[in-house]
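Deliverable D5.2: sample structural annotation.
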Amino acid sequence: MPPPLVVGFDLDMTLIDTRPGFAACLRALESRTGLSFPVDDLVEQLGPPLDLMLAPHVPGATPETLAGLVDEFRALYPTIAVAPTPAFAGAHESLAAVRRHGGRSLVVTGKFTPNARLHVEALGLDVDEVVGEVWGPGKGPVLAEHGAALFVGDHVHDIEGAHAAGVLGVGVTTGGCSAAELEEAGAHVVLPALSDFPGWLATHLAS
């Protein structure tokens, strides 16, 4: 008997459209600190950890100053970023498809875990586990530990995480990476949107 289906999903720009809340939080951080960030550009680069995104825009940045900015951003986040953040079309349907096939869904994200859970709760996303603060290949051990068969994400680093776990990487072009970039990173399949996932999953499991 095959093991139960476990599907991993990235969160930001895969299940949820983080851009409105992320931008609002960055602007609040600007007001608090007097720093200036290219907010529109950073919104389109979502994926890497926040300290790596902010570092080029913080004069004389040190690990300590960046850690302080990340802490302040995380503290602002619950009251500013959660409410304006919607689920992508197909998010609920994709999670329901996993459940329909007798499976479990796992969110594996670089986002601060408590804030990731706030999004899951606010949007009523039917997931069984949320693991945050892991990025790129670092997602591999988490996926392997939970017995995931595949990982769905919008970024080339999500595909790296799938490869690190030895599982299929399913790319969606809802984030900052193009279909060509996801394919070059080694995605098993690239879907235009998450709404295409339920049909692909049914075909994949039947093959």
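Annotation notes: The first strand starts at residue 6 and ends at 9. The chain has a mean pLDDT of 95.
The annotation will be released with the project's public dataset once the embargo ends.
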